Amino acid sequence: MESNSFRIKGSPMTGLIMATFGFFIGFAAVSLYGPVAKNLKEILGLSGFLLGLLVAAPNLTGSLLRIPFAAWVDKAGGKIPLTTLLVLSVIGMGGLSTLLYFYYPNLEPWMYWLILFFGFLSGCGIATFSVGIAQTAYWFPENKQGFALGIYAGVGNLAPGLFGLVLPFALKEIGLTTSYILWFGFLLVGTVIYILFAKDAPYFQLIKSGIPRDEAIIRAKEKGQELIPTGSLIESLKNSARHIETWALVALYFTSFGGFLALTGWFIVFWVESYDMEVRHAGLLMAFGFSLLASVIRIFGGWMSDKIGGELVSIVAFGMILIGALIVISGGNTNFSVSLAGEILMGAGMGIANGAVFKLVPKYVPHATGGAAGWVGGLGAFGGFVVPPILGIFVQNFGISGYSKGFIVYVLLSVMAIIISGLLWKAYGKEINKPIEEL
Predict the structure, then answer these.
(1) Which chain regions cross the lipid bilayer (predicted)?
(2) Are 126 and 381 in contact, with CB atoms under 8 Å apart?
(3) CA 383 remoteness from chain centre
(4) Which of 105, 202, 248, 323 is least surrounded by Cβ atoms within 10 Å, i.e. has the fewest?
(5) Is the distance from CB of 402 to CB of 332 less than 8 angstroms?
């Protein structure tokens, strides 16, 4: 094939739509066990720690796999890594659906570990986040990345809230087993659609067609692609790891996005156990008061970061999380209105902070965006796995009041994040972002 005859397929909008779609269908696994946590706790006789571990299970693979898979984007483009993660998630959902079909509700205690394993596999779909972040960033010029990434993450982040909202109602109407079988079918069909229609950014298409790298760079830039990968998977991880800014963003994301992952599953448990609420009503509160709110407002966080800088937006957002956590603690397990207000404020703060943090990734590490997205998205999202078992320990030690007291964890994390954001703003914000008066 002559190099000049090759035509690039797709467009930035197509790239954004398909990356968002792939992330949406995979990310739903965040709410995999939250709505059924009480059922499984009673059937399997789980302690608070084991319950928290089960709710958090998908977030382990969903966080750690982001690191190598996001860096893989710098080498292969986004389609192959994202497809691989979706296929692994399909296998996990298929295994879970099969187990429930044959054994639910007569589950044996030893099956907890099998359910946990299928949760780990299903969580591979959560790791699509960092892959899609890098895939989207390569399609768009820098001055449009904040808004594009805000749309990508905002729409994709709707999945846990929507599934956490729908699943409790489905459980009541058609039963647990049928609900999960339908979820498996949705994931399978969605994976096929992504494979058929997703396209890599111009540079990767050109390289795969056999065009020399120098020519591919020129032609990709002519198509509007500003970010060009500079090395292999390992090199991308190494290059991004050398930047202290990468690790600062990891800490911020551990609080904001790790917090989002953890509380999307945990808030349903919180409402059911603290206020003896039906799981359907708890799902509504989690979805509208936290998950969907955080997802939609993330777009605003990315847009504001384009305007005044991600560092400044982060300071405000983490302050909101801090205040929200204090409000939840003060509400205890007796003041519903106060607890709900705290949940809403935390959801808004986490959503805005998520948009702000990832606006900074391609700015601080432009030559290894995939690797940086892997570290930040992977280790940052690890908070979604670490925190729920800790919250479960508070329940074990303090009983019902432990559900509110556990939010002291987010008070401490928020204070840390505000300090780091302030240091970044002082050191880099005024250099990288336009001063407010120039906007």
Answers:
(1) 12-34, 46-73, 85-104, 110-134, 146-168, 180-198, 247-269, 281-300, 312-332, 344-361, 373-395, 407-425
(2) yes
(3) 11
(4) 105
(5) no
